[in-house]
Amino acid sequence: MNYDIPPWLATKKGFIILALIIPGPKQTTNFDVFLQPLVEELSQLWQGVSDVFDGRTHRIGRDRWFMLRGIMMWTMHDSPGYGIVSGFQTKGYCACPTCAIDLPYSWSYQLRKVVYMEFSTFLPLDHPFRGVGEDRNLDPPPIARTMEWWKNTWMDVQDGRRQQDESGLRRWCLLHQLPY
């Protein structure tokens, strides 16, 4: 969305740019191929594109030219899309990017999949569904992982100090190359 125009115009159909990729049944294993041109253009926009013509102003001469700058503020996607774009694992044993390896899981033989049983640790301590009796206050919520923690974890994977399966990272996203 273009936030350089009034709010009542920013959400109109003509001013929204929708980029959509639907991988289909044969999804790519290397999504960085799609992100590389975007990262290059965003890096160029961060530096600024000079001599952009402003057709909306009624000024005359050189005042109608300006330096254009742009950033990507956020992306929107579902959980599988988040895993594809970010490089985080969003299914299986380390499926929560917030909890990472501290996510309590177990294998369900009846369902034949990984299940997450201790979801009540995310509830407030005084919530009625949080544990029973003395188990109510035993497990604090997992600590949210910062980007610095993820960067150090990826460096450990690259150096061989940590297994990639245990980290919850499949790759380091190209969007982290952006300077902002």
Annotation keywords:
5 helices; 180 residues; two-stranded antiparallel sheet; elongated; Transposase_21
Q: What would a concise description of this structure say?
A:
The chain is 25% helix and 8% strand. It is of the alpha+beta class and 180 residues long. The protein has a two-stranded antiparallel ribbon with strand order 1-2. A two-stranded antiparallel ribbon has the order 3-4.
Description of the molecule:
This protein has 180 residues and is an alpha+beta fold. Helices cover 25% and strands 8% of the residues. It contains 5 helices and 4 strands. The strands form 2 sheets. It has a two-stranded antiparallel sheet. It has a two-stranded antiparallel sheet with strand order 3-4. The longest helix is centred in the first third of the chain and has 16 residues, at 32-47.
By oligomeric state, this entry counts as single chain
Question: What's the end-to-end separation, in Å?
Answer: 18 Å
Indicate the overall shape. Answer: elongated
Mean pLDDT: 79
What is this structure's SSE topology?
Blueprint: H1 7-10, H2 32-47, E1 49-53, E2 65-68, H3 79-86, E3 106-108, E4 113-115, H4 147-159, H5 164-167
Antiparallel strand pairs: 1-2, 3-4
